[in-house]
Amino acid sequence: MQSLKRCIISGSRDAKQVNRFISTAQQEIIKRDEQFAGPHFKPLPVVLAKGEGAFLWDIDNKRYYDFLAGFSTCNQGHCHPRLVKVMRDQCGKLHHVSRAFFTELHGELGEYLTRLFGFDKFIPMNTGVEAGDLSIKLARRWGYRIKKIPKDKATVLFAKNNFWGRSIAAASASTEPLCFTDFGPFVPNFEKIPYDDLTALEEALKNNPNVCAFMMEPIQGEAGVKIPKDGYLKGVRDLCTKYNVLWIADEVQTGLGRTGHRLAVDYENQKPDILVLGGPLACAVALEAVKILEEEKLAENAARLGKIVKEELEKIPKDIASEFRGRGLLCGIQINKEFANGWDVCLRLRDNGVLSRPAHGQFLRISPPLVIKEDQLREGLEIIKNTLLNY
């Protein structure tokens, strides 16, 4: 380990003094934001101004590696020229007309996506959490009209430690106190079972004939990139089929090449009944975004580079990082509490030129844009390793 380069390292300092390491201009912008913006999230203290590919720049023109990629959704990188062109072209032709009328691109996007993923229909929504809400509505209506569940008895199962947004439905499904405390009363007939536990799933399905759906993430991102045991996804498919229940796969973070496959469920060659994906707004941009993923073979790039991430991060001593978890370019390491606080590590990484955030307190996420090049990835990983070794 001593052979690792000792470069781009800040001096040791108290985490409470983080403002010393950002400019006065950034501090003023953060102060204004905190004064006028409602607090619903804790941003890392850095004020970003632009992005390109795998890089971000702050207002002082300092460059950073983006190792978060909008929580794994900015797969094509920042300001991909093809996306910028399509967005500009579309803005010059037609803005919003709602679904009161037909547009050419809506059907074109639907045809492309349904054929690519092998589904019957698609419904575009504004956000991932809206897509999750709609999935539950679809499952409930199916439960009443097809499965013949008694009125208002339809139940949806969720895996514990899920995260799919901040709506009241998402809060009702959550087991994280920060997401649901003081937001009740909650949506009824939502039940939670352990993740990666087929016995618990079958028990819940067997005991309640009114279950209409099981909603889960093939890999739990916000829970610390929790990857289920091999065979879990197949077991979910088999049990949902056995008990006549819809399987909703939330792939907002894991889909579209992130894990080294087109979809995370493809790892076990399984197919859910309802697939939830995240993507850019507007049909023209969404269509081009998916075409970029396919034509530039970004899933294959994620699979190849993910092996490098695993190889490099597993070199970090176990007393610093106890565990590596990941698949493709959705991965990270568990920082030992005795070594350092996960948030403080992210602040130090910010100072050294890498942006990320901790998940569940101590899990350092590594999920750069899928367009990142190997030399860029290796440099970013070197910064992470050196930051930890010189902490």
TrEMBL record:
It catalyses: a 2-oxocarboxylate + L-ornithine = L-glutamate 5-semialdehyde + an L-alpha-amino acid. The keyword tRNA processing does not apply. CDD domains: OAT_like. One of its GO terms (molecular function) is pyridoxal phosphate binding. The lineage of its organism: Eukaryota, Metazoa, Ecdysozoa, Arthropoda, Hexapoda. Its cofactor is pyridoxal 5'-phosphate. Pathway: Amino-acid biosynthesis; L-proline biosynthesis; L-glutamate 5-semialdehyde from L-ornithine: step 1/1. GO terms for cellular component: mitochondrial matrix. Belongs to the class-III pyridoxal-phosphate-dependent aminotransferase family. Its EC number is 2.6.1.13. The keyword Transferase applies. This is Ornithine aminotransferase. It is found in: Mitochondrion matrix. Homotetramer. Keywords: Aminotransferase, Pyridoxal phosphate, Transferase. One of its GO terms (biological process) is L-arginine catabolic process to L-glutamate.
